[in-house]
Amino acid sequence: MRNIGVDRSVLIVVFALIVFGLFNLYSAGQTDVPTQALGVWKRQLVWLAIGSVTCWIMFRTSPRLLEWAAPWVYGFALILLLVTLVVGTGAGTAASSKSWLAIGGHQIGQPAELAKLAVVLMLARYLSGLREAPGSMRELIIPCLIAGIPSLLVLKQPDLGSALVFIGILFAVLFWAGVRPHLLVMLASPVVSLLAAFSIVSWAVWMVLLTGLLILWRPFVFEAVTVWLV
Amino acid sequence: MNEFHPARLQRRAEAARWLLLALFGVLLVTFFRAQIVEHDRFQLRAQGNRLRAVPLTSPRGAILDRNGLVIAENVPGYSVKLFASSRDSLKSLLETFRQIVPLDSSDVTDVLRRYVSSPFQPAPVLGDASFDVVARLEEHRAALPGLVIQAEPKRQYPDSQAVAHLVGYVGEVTEGDLAANRFPGASLGTIVGKAGLEQQYDSILRGVPGNRYIEVDHRGRMVREEGAAPTLRPVAGTPIKTTIDLPLQRFVDSIWPIGVKGAMVAMTPKGEILALYSAPTYDPNQFIGGISSAQWRVLNTDPDKPLINRAIQGRYPPASPFKLAMSIMGLKRGVITINSHMPTPCRGGIQFGNRYFRCWKKEGHGSLDLLGAIAQSCDVYFYQLGLRLQLPAIIEEGVRLGFRERTGVDLGPESSPIYPQNTAFFDKLYGPRGWTAGSVTMNFSIGQGENTQTVIGMTRFYQGLANGGIEVAPFLVHPTTTAVHDYGVTPEQALDLRRALIAVVNQGTAARSRQTGFQLAGKTGTAQNTSGKDHGWFLGFAPADKPQIVIGMVMESMEGGHGGALVAPYVSRVARYFLLGPDSATKVLLPIQLPEDTAPRPLDLPPDSTRALLPPAPIPAGQRR
Fold first, then answer.
1. How far apart are CA A135 and CA A128, in angstroms?
2. Nearest CA in chain B to A179
3. How far is the C-alpha of B458 from the C-alpha of B267, rounded, in Å?
4. Measured at the alpha carbon of residue B350, what is the angle toward residues B346 and B351, in degrees to the nearest 5?
5. Is the pLDDT of residue B145 over 80?
């Protein structure tokens, strides 16, 4: 088989996780009184097969095709998210949120899942199109919008967990694209400040750390801030 | 330089690796803490999620009579509960349930209401299900997930309406009771005593409920009913032994005329209550397993108020029986002796000021001594005795004799008798110029006026008379006080009063209830009822020379002039039953007219068939046994 650039160790890890997951699902179904969890591991096998085929197809697809498709997929995902806000239904433990699309009472899927993929593709397309990695806050505005818009739409469902995943994706992609760490820290600092503010001690520690980092990376802190403000 | 140059990628991969390792480190520490350091705490909390407690009713202690006969006991019963994860699922479960066992829509609402108030416990649907119902439900168990059927001890009163006011009944504790902490140790769903002895001795009878555990999944649906966790066994309540004589209690119920309201208390001279009865009565068994709202409405809206215990809660003017209290006051204060005659003989009434006060007997009694006045219940004599004593003395001595106090009997909420503390009472009631001491004195002298007493209170007073002027507190299980109450009369005076009470039965107003075999002593009374026919009293004890039983009885709204005379025969029969045994009094002899060639002959009838006959036919002379 032709080497298509698959990392063997990644494959092994993924396979191990799949097997572990199957064991877990099988174990969960073994109750005294049979519940619907009994046959879940078999269904997982079916999904595994579907997933493997999809995976193989994706590897065979040209990156150029993916690059071309990215805006379309992204646009489609946004439309689905908007539709979900209007006609979405809840499910399971989050019955009151509108995260699912359903046709005739049959749940098809969560548009947020598609949106995650679309954001990854869209960010990759945008960042790889740049000559250099973004070096200032201003240059980060567009990537932030690409991840932020679907994130806000998901937050409106409301589904905070999925919304935060978009932020994680944003940071991971920016990091991989070569954005300097200090820029990422600065980008994250308002949110971290907010979270740390729940406890005076944690907030103080964070502020000392932040000041330290600023002095380390930008000895001319005040000048930098002034310049950035202008 | 290209950001994707291998060297740069390598550096970023390195950084990412360290970051991920650090995050895994945090996860590991957290995992260690949750699984090992705080294992016990989380396991406990997980069990709290996994297990739901189902209370197990503790068997209530039995209530026994003085000879160990059962007044209240437990029989096996079934309670049916439904366990549901939400109100909606309970609702749909109940819909299925109704197709198997019929339920009122009001019952369904009730079950839902109770589910909402305690959603983590199975909602009680049927408090007392028959074996048929249980069998039918077991058959359809597959269609009813969350069905919990429990064998529970169920309260039963074998003598039902005969002991209703005595034992009371039990029911589920209400939220109001819990808020007021009226039943310490009870929680929602606990069965507690709601009236009578069941309520009075609830803390002793109740025992400690246990718990059974059922296992539920994360949505609160039942997964396992048995063996999820060890069961906490309930602790049975302690039985109590009362002073009641159950056969006597049954007998009173069997002879009580249908449709007559009233009450009866019988006690020994030591204060041990032998029987306590109130009419109309009700069936306490209908409260077991939850009374239906329809039945509850019937009991509560009945104009005869069957739930009221007339023996301890009904207040009646003491009327003529109070003349004995007047006599004691007079003897004690030395204004009369047993042989004293009053200046004005009875000519059917007496003029006082501008008013004429009648005696009950229009023809008059002539000049009587105290013994004769008690025997004939002459009002004119006691009017004059009252005027001699003066109102302040009557009130002061009445209070001292205990007419202002509850008897403190260990049974439910007893009404306080009404008797003035001093003459200021009348100033307050009518205004200082709105009343005259004279007419109030006249009324008090014959047991009327601002003086109402309970049946048990008056019976206690006659128990004191039976004891020669020494009264002890009546009780059913334990006396609330051991203090004795001395009326302050000499033994000779007490004997004189006893002779007068014997004379009442032998020649006076209760002469018709004279008995052979033992001597009854007592006093009749007719209490004027402002809202209808008069109430009849009889209070007495027997045998007169060595009392073994003291009986007080009131029958409301009796026909005929002297109501007490109609009540006396019942008291006489109760005394006869107690002293001479069941065979002597269960048969009522009625003259039946047979064809003319044979003489009228008495015919034996079973006691039940005579209950509707009112008033009871007197036993014909010559046929007494």
1. 14
2. B3
3. 12
4. 155
5. yes
Cα B369 versus chain centre, distance:
42
Residue-wise pLDDT tens digits, B250-265: 999 999 988 888 999 9
Strand B240-241, strand B63-64: pairing: parallel
Query: Which of B8, B16, B223 is closest, CB to CB, to A178?
Result: B8
Q: Verify whether the Cβ–Cβ distance A176 to B12 is below 8 Å.
A: yes
Q: Cβ(B246)–Cβ(B71) under 8 Å?
A: yes
Smallest CA–CA separation between B235 and chain A, in Å? 31
Nearest to B468 by CA among B433, B498, B431, B500: B498
pLDDT digits (tens, 9 = 90+) for B201-211: 999 999 888 88
DSSP state of B34: I
To the nearest whole Å, the CA of A68 is away from the closest chain B CA by: 21
- Look up tokens 């004997």; give the residue: B495
Smallest CA–CA distance from A31 into chain B, residue: B223
Residue type at B52 in one-letter notation: R
Task: Compute, in degrees rounded to 10, the torsion defined by CA atoms B247, B252, B255, B259.
Answer: -140
Within 8 A by CB and 6+ apart from B415, the residues are B312, B313, B314, B315, B406, B454
Structure tokens of B120?
Answer: 């983590």
Q: Which of A33, A175, A176 sits opposite B223 (nearest CB)?
A: A33
Q: What are phi and psi of A171, to 5 degrees?
A: -65, -45
Q: Angle, nearest 10°, between helix axes B379-389 and B437-445?
A: 130
Q: What is the pLDDT of residue A121?
A: 93
Amino acid sitting at position B612: A
Q: If DSSP codes are grouped into helix, strand and coil, which group holds residue B64? A: strand
DSSP A167-196: HHHHHHHHHHTT--HHHHHHHHHHHHHHHH
Backbone angles phi and psi of B152, in degrees to 5: -130, 145
Q: Which stretches of B418-546 are DSSP H helices?
A: 424-430, 437-445, 455-466, 491-506
Largest CA distance in chain A: 69
* Helix (H), strand (E) counts: chain A: 9, 2
Q: What residues contact A149, with CB distance under 8 A and at least 6 apart? A: A78
- How many C-beta atoms surround the C-beta of residue B368 within 10 A? 19
B86: nearest Cα among B219, B242, B203: B219
Helices and strands, counts by H and E, chain B = 21, 21
In three-state form (DSSP H/G/I as H, E/B as E, the rest C), the secondary structure along A189-230 is: HHHHHHHHCCCHHHHHHHHHHHHHHHHHHCCCHHHHHHHHHC
pLDDT in tens, B495-548: 999 999 998 888 766 666 666 678 889 898 888 777 777 888 899 998 888 999
Q: Element (H or E) spanning B74, and its range?
A: strand B70-82
User: Which residue(s) pair with B304 in the sheet?
Assistant: none
ipTM over 0.85: no
Query: Distance between CA atoms of B561 and B565, rounded to whole angstroms?
Result: 9
Choose among A33, A132, A178: nearest Cβ to B224: A33
Q: Is the pLDDT of residue B623 over 70?
A: no
Q: Where are the alpha helices (DSSP H) in B180-313?
A: 196-200, 202-205, 246-255, 293-301
pLDDT of residue B589 exceeding 50, the answer is no
Q: Find, among B377, B362, B624, the residue nearest to B512 by Cα.
A: B624
Is B220 within 8 Å of B41 (Cβ atoms)?
no
- Beta carbons of B223 and A31 less than 8 Å apart: yes
Report chain A residues whose CB lies below 8 A from the CB of B12: 175-176, 178
Classify residue B460 as exposed, middle or buried by CB count within 10 Å of its CB (0-12, 13-18, 19+): buried
Residue B474 near residue B271, CB atoms below 8 Å:
yes
- Identify the residue whose tokens are 């008495």: B602
Do A139 and A132 meet the contact criterion of CB atoms below 8 Å apart? no
Task: Locate B279 and state its tokens.
Answer: 């009419």
